[in-house]
Amino acid sequence: ITVTDLVNESYKRIGEVDGKVRAFLTLDEENARATAAAQDVQLGNKDTRGLLFGLPIGIKDNIVTEGVITTCASQFLRNFNPVYDATVVTKLKEAQAVSIGKLNMDEFAMGGSNENSSFHPTYNPWNTEYVPGGSSGGSAAAVAAGEVYFSLGSDTGGSIRQPAAYCGIVGLKPTYGLVSRFGLVAFASSLDQIGPLTKNVEDSAYLLQAIAGHDPKDSTSAEVDIPDYISALTGDIKGLRIALPKEYMGEGIDPAVRESVLSALKLLESLGAVVEEVSLPHTEYAVAAYYLLASSEASSNLARFDGVRYGVRAENPANLLDLYHRSRSEGFGAEVKRRIMLGTYALSSGYYDAYYLKAQKVRTLIKQDFDKVFESYDIVIGPTAPTTAFKVGALVDDPLTMYLNDILTIPVNLAGVPAISIPCGFADGLPIGLQMIGKPLSEATILRVAHAFE
Ligand code: GLN
């Protein structure tokens, strides 16, 4: 089998299913075929192959790719052609993965269903009447539907883990700072992380190995040694101490999800782990704090889209103010505008102490909840999302319920810790996700436990 065969297979599958799933925004077929042809020459020479040699990958459309349109699923950037690659894309090229194309998402990564894409929704491959989750819904659906081997997503409040859960695949949000954000279009810079969406845990370890590491181009990038994630998959979890937060299993959690998580924990116990109930008492304040902080950061980050430098410019402006005003009014969708308004309000003088500062304090309390539990436990385990995927259209007019859905993933971003979602069962034909949360930089442990469970 050649790399060209793999790439052909990928586009063939896309031709067969993407009319229904609609995971892709842009296909990069010409480049992919040229890369594949070049790699075929290298086939016989094992020593020269990169870690991900010849493997078809999809990339979320908020990660910039040189010469390939990068839209963030926004009308504002529908013609934006980046002049450089994100660091993760450079690293993928070094590892010799083959980029197949760019994947759909909620506009600027704001959302949890992919219905906020300004182009079209993506549909859940298990049942196309349901959403694939979001905001990395295209990234999750493309992997679940077999269109690519794996993909990259970004996670600000759950956007890798929740779609992975809804689509029955593995999604990993690394520790804040482990993977470079250079070239990731910023949503909320203190929360955003890029990470892998894969079919299984071993693939997740490989992809993380390829993209992790210090980057001088990202000032928040951690200067740490990268362990060997692949050899961490030993299968041994004897004596592992697992914490089950009671707040993650209470009201609002679907009984089928709860049962599935409990039986997953039984299995882990049978492998030699110890499970005990703990409390993360500030969990109930996480959603409110997150939507204030993330929107505040977004209102500032998105100020760069003014119609002058990037993307689409309003036609025939009367003056500069009119140019800004109309470019932004026409370019941004409703959810993005909602967040910019909320964030601008929260940051305005007179309200700053009452909202932004208070939310920062809540963030610290949530971080301390985790610190305390990690003094006596190796890992925190619970559901990834309160329910399985919901129907397309069910929550489009109800942003608050949509926001509350993120209750189990948001605390992880606020604390900056790593977490993985892996499949642990089904309810009514739709996958359920199990979330494993670790100490900072304990990706090797999370992957080891997830692999033992799988
Ligand atoms: N659903 C959350 C939001 O809308 C998370 C998004 C994300 O992680 N990018 O903000």
UniProtKB/TrEMBL annotation:
It comes from the Bacteria. The gene is gatA. PROSITE patterns: AMIDASES. Heterotrimer of A, B and C subunits. This is Glutamyl-tRNA(Gln) amidotransferase subunit A. It catalyses: L-glutamyl-tRNA(Gln) + L-glutamine + ATP + H2O = L-glutaminyl-tRNA(Gln) + L-glutamate + ADP + phosphate + H(+). Residues 5-447 form the Amidase domain. NCBIfam families: gatA. Belongs to the amidase family. GatA subfamily. InterPro entries: Amidase, Amidase_CS, Amidase_dom, AS_sf, GatA. Allows the formation of correctly charged Gln-tRNA(Gln) through the transamidation of misacylated Glu-tRNA(Gln) in organisms which lack glutaminyl-tRNA synthetase. The reaction takes place in the presence of glutamine and ATP through an activated gamma-phospho-Glu-tRNA(Gln). Its EC number is 6.3.5.7. The active site is at residues 60, 135, 159.
